[in-house]
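$ fold --in a.seq
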Amino acid sequence: MNRRFYLLPLLFILLWAGEGEGDASSDTEIIKKLLGKGYDWRVRPPGINLTIPGTHGAVIVTVNMLIRSISKIDDVNMEYSVQLTFREEWVDGRLAYGLPGDDTPPFLILTAGQQIWMPDSFFQNEKQAHKHDIDKPNVLIRIHRDGLILYSVRISMVLSCPMHLQYYPMDVQTCLIDLASYAYTTNDIEYQWKKDKPVQLKNGLHSSLPSFQLNNVYTDLCTSKTNTGTYSCLRTILELRRQFSYYLLQLYIPSTMLVIVSWVSFWLDRGAVPARVTLGVTTLLTMTTQASGINAKLPPVSYTKAIDVWIGACLTFIFGALLEFAWVTYISSRSFYKRKKICSSRNSLLVETRQALIIPNTVVANFTEQPTDEVEMGLTDAPDVWVRHQNNGKTVTEVNGLLNHTNDGSGELIIIDSKHKNRRYVLWNNFKNLRLVRWARRRLDVDDNAKRADLISRVMFPTLFLIFNFIYWTKYSQYHVPAAI
């Protein structure tokens, strides 16, 4: 309903009471007349609802604002800075000085020192604030002829903004600007948003933030009830999406490169101990330093952030590559000393090399032919091996690793085809004869455990890292904006 319609009876009363005092001929005289005839700026004006007796209801304060800039969004202290032009409109019938269409000026502007009643508005989540006074106080108080008051001021504030960092740095934050009356309850003051553009944005504000993108701005009500009464409140919600390009270039790509560099040790010879140790330790320390620099910009929250998962995974892969080198070195040294011990034993029954089988103090029998290609490639089963030779006057017979002492003095090597095979052995043989398994066995060089570990790591580490990336980006790229509290 038109606010000015309610003011017409008040205007006639005020004008009738002022007859005989002469028409005001200037703004100064009108202001002196309005503020000098018993006007008390400490008492709130009556409302505009004439149907309510007495105070005519609460004063309706219409609010709108122009956000000029948003800066210094601090993740550690969870706060941000904003500069805005704040405007309020309300009706004070005691300051009406004319009727529509008369020769009075359409509005008057008050200067410093001329006091009128104003709402006791304050920002609930404000930490620091100040008005701008350069080079004159940036304040506007305009009185229209029908008693409508416009109050406009330019202020800068530091506001608290509780953040949810579970998806950092792919998060979307909602920061608030809450406006309420400090002393007047809803019986005295009621705040309303202006219907046309309640929140205006300066041109270019969406993309002017250094590390955030302003996605959306919308308004809401936040009227609260306390022990002292119910207070009207207006809320501005700023939806800020963090710019991911900075973290992609400064964190994700460098850390991915560090993980890949740590895999280079799988292609280095296991004897190059200084090179592999230096590579593993350097990448691990670099990743740790990078993680410390990122965490220094964040508050110590109790939950796990997306960046914590990424850094932890990268550290795990790099540390795993370093542990793999330690394992390869261990099994390589173990195999070397084991072979050396066998060669140094004078009573060795069998010494295996890549070229031949050396049987000391043994007469070879039934071994006139070379092993066939099928046996070497695993296409057919290798025969059982019997070794018998002299040992301190007795004959020791070894059958596939089992020793049997006899009194026979002859020594010989006997190769006998296997005749009895159980079901499990047959299934294992069939599995080994698969084309893919035979190719993998030839590639992995099953006779060298250290080399096999490096070959497996060359495939396993990149595969696991790709799987982790798929799961990570699938989960954390689908972020839902948390509801404003």
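$ fold --in b.seq
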Amino acid sequence: MARSSPMDKHTLVKHLRTTFGEVVAVTGDGTNDAPALHEADIGLAMGIAGTEVAKESADVIILDDNFSTIVTVAKWGRSVYINIQKFVQFQLTVNVVALIVNFSSACLTGNAPLTAVQLLWVNMIMDTLGALALATEPPNDDLMKRSPVGRKGNFISNVMWRNILGQSVYQFMIIWILQTRGKTFFHLDGSDADLILNTLIFNSFVFCQVFNEISSREMEKINVLEGILNNHVFVAVLSCTVIFQIVIVEFLGTFASTCPLTLQQWFVSICLGFLTMPIAAALKLIPVGSI
């Protein structure tokens, strides 16, 4: 098609987009390529050899005129798309669990285990820190082995729904068991029993999110620790989350409605959170469609 007339190129691109529903990318450098560049979903023009008309009609300008640069563009584009999917998966899990726990507890017992300040901290983990951690994952070569996302592809895939629902069920069950059997298990009695139990629920919930954030690094691969130390932002975010959680529980009792926990209670909270990782690995073994 390189030496075809401008309208032939335009017709080909138009039919690929409309009749076949494909996502079409076109490269060009001449004035006669302008109609096809404008019609395509993604028009790529050459920055050095390309004419001004071609550059104005294109979406992306390849400054070095090196065709292999398109591979880098595609790799980073896929990386951004998948990183957003990871963040949305993590965010929906936190939202679903927090909403169900507080709503069901308020309806059945008359009080919610998570206070407004605690939910605000969870929201910070979910939105600000979670976005920083998961959105800064660098691209890797495996991204180019994935099938491209079609025009009608769902942003929240079946894989994401599987991970979200599996994690949500586990976290809800853990918090509900703690709420109903926690006093008996930890031998809590006295006037501060409810405060200790709610602090334990809050601590366990936060550590579930910490380990779920690690599991969210990969939506389909079981090995989620590969290359984790190379992402310094991710490590820094996790470290800050854990440090601030310790400060909130141990030192900000009046402000956050918490009380200091014993080493046994800390150990149980961290273990309950850590269990989200093997559960996430088991969930990834369940086959689902890629749509």
